[in-house]
Amino acid sequence: MDRLTELELFVTTAELGTLSKAAEMLGLSNAAASRHLVALEQRLNVRLIDRNTRRLALTHSGHQFYTSCKSLLGELKEAEASLTESLVQPVGTLTITSSISFCMLHIAPLIPAFRKKYPHITVKVLGENRYYDIIGPRNTSQTPTSPSAGSRKPAGSWRPHPATCSARAHPKPLKIWSTMTC
Fold it and tell me: Percentage helix, strand, coil, to 5, in the chain?
């Protein structure tokens, strides 16, 4: 038998005062719940619950064991919750490069809300009027607002590469940031 299920069943039964409600709450049949409780008592070699057809009552040993099991199961739930929370929370460094004016007008106002929503992400904004190799290890995201100085393409036909997070320097906000709900 599963020891954790036995402990959860015991604690739930002690709290609800009935084995059938505890079994229903844990998704067990009444027969399976009864087998789990008997197996727990046999493994511990002590009677935890006095039961008859009308009521259940914890024995003295049952009260002591209930207190220990309740705190143990609470600690287990806390440990699982903290682990799950740490896996769900994004962690790391986000580096954004763009022109100084674009950073000041569009990116900087969004950073406080972003940092509040994602406290474990470090945000580095590189505002310079030159462009970096976005594939290089230095950058995570780049927001080009015009063609680079050495580009052979005329300014009117410039289009960002689809893999970049980009926008043009006009009143429309940067698409990836405008859809973000901070």
Answer: 50, 15, 35
Domains plus CATH for the chain? 3-87 (1.10.10.10), 92-147+156-178 (3.40.190)
Angle between helices 30-44 and 19-26 (to 10 degrees): 110
pTM for this entry: 0.49
Q: Which amino acid is at 133?
A: D
Distance separating alpha carbons of residues 119 and 78, to the nearest angstrom? 21
Structure confidence by residue, pLDDT tens digits, 134-152: 565 554 544 455 555 444 4
List C-alpha distances in Å: 58 to 11, 21, 28, 65, 106: 11, 16, 21, 10, 64
pLDDT tens string 63-75:
999 999 999 999 9
Distance CA 109, CA 177 (A): 11
Burial label for 5, CB within 10 Å (0-12, 13-18, 19+), is middle
